Amino acid sequence: MSKSLLAVFGATGNQGNSTANFVLDDPELSQRYSVRAVSRNVENAKMQELKSKGAQLAQADLDDPASLPASLKDVEYLFFLTTTQYQGNSREIETRQAKAICEAALNASVKFIIFSSMSHPYKISNGKLKNVEHFDDKAEIEQYIRSLPVKSAFFAPGSFMQNFTSHLKPRPSRAGDGTFVMASIVNPDTKVPMIDITDTGKWVGAILAEPEKYNGKFFAAAESLMTLPEACEIISKVTGKTVTFRQLPDEVFKGFLPEVIREAMYEMWVLNRDYGYYGPDMAELVGWTKEQARGELTTLEQWLEREKYMIE
């Protein structure tokens, strides 16, 4: 039986690299699919590693539509994502990129598209949250793909555990007592969906294992729903440091955010606090999606230990 060709765009990024490696390493999927890893730079070390596992390499850029047809030749299955543009114009740029690759995919007779989507804050909040453009644009692209004459499924990752190395990283307490504080505007009982983004392939692999079953499905992908105080307890356990959660007033929190993404980041956390990251059905959506994963998911404690996580 000849293999179906899967093109993975963004193959050097967290999601694409996870997907490509998962398919190449999975005993069943590797017999059913050949992988074409697509990136702007095929000389990248991650691309060369995929090549050593048997992947084809292709150079393409979503901002260069002329580069797309060759990378999609003979492709039946496509995984792609658009990248948030933190300098601005994210909706315009991501929408243009998505439409370019979808048009090329249809011209190439691709049978199934898997897109990295997101929840829809504007819709979930009945129009109150207008600035979470980096979520809304992906939800809008999802709706566009659903309108096309092609089968599709959607992977929508929760809050990355990797954020604990950046804006969620505990900071030394101002008390100077050797303890650490994680600060946000969410309530102490706000549930946040947590995912190790390098687990992406475990869900995309599930879709590829049974594409007909998952046609049209939305994967609210997270290992767990966790409050930030619960995350602090786990970080304390792993690091041996005392980490506590502090809820900040909205305006104080906004003052800590970079101006260029201030409103977007602020409203993203308002979404978590006031509406739920995936909306009112979050627990049900995340529960179903977790059950579909192909393989064991990485817990926060496992991720912290794997990354040799430290705070100081």
Automatic annotation (TrEMBL):
Per UniProt, residues of the NmrA-like domain are 3-304
Record-level GO cellular component terms = nucleus
InterPro entries, sorted: NAD(P)-bd_dom_sf, NmrA-like, NmrA-like_oxidored
Keyword set, alphabetical order:
NADP
Q: Which SUPFAM superfamilies does the UniProt entry name for this protein?
A: NAD(P)-binding Rossmann-fold domains (SSF51735)
Q: Which domain of life is it from?
A: Eukaryota
Check the record and name the Pfam families matching this protein.
NmrA
Q: Family assignment?
A: Belongs to the NmrA-type oxidoreductase family.
- Please give the name of this protein: NmrA-like domain-containing protein
- Species: Paraphoma chrysanthemicola
